Amino acid sequence: MPKALAALKSVYLDPEIEEDLQNRLSRIEGHVRGVKRMLAEHSSCEDLLLQLSAVRSAINQATALLLENHMDTCVTNCVRAGEGEKALRHLKGALSHVIKSL
Length: 102
Hints:
Blueprint: H1 3-10, H2 15-40, H3 45-80, H4 84-100
Helix pairs in contact: 1-3, 2-3, 3-4
C-alpha cells in the first residue's frame, strides 16, 4: 500500500470530533423521523419544506466539520510524510463529491 494511503488509513478523527459528529448524526436521524411523522400526519407542505431545509442545513454543517477535520488530520499527516500530491488528489476527490451534492 502506498505511504499516502497508509497514512490516510492510519489517522482518524480526533475523538471529540468523532463524538460531535455522532451526536450531530443522531440529531439528524431524529429530525428525519420527525419529518416522516409530519408527512404521515399530513402536515402542510410549507412545514415539511421548512423541516427538510433544516435537515439539509444540519447535514451541510456536519459535512463541513468532517471536511475541516479531514484536512487537519489526514491531509496534514500525508503532507508531513512527503505525500502531499497524493493527499491533495484524495482531498480533491472528497471535495468533488461534496460539491456535486450541493
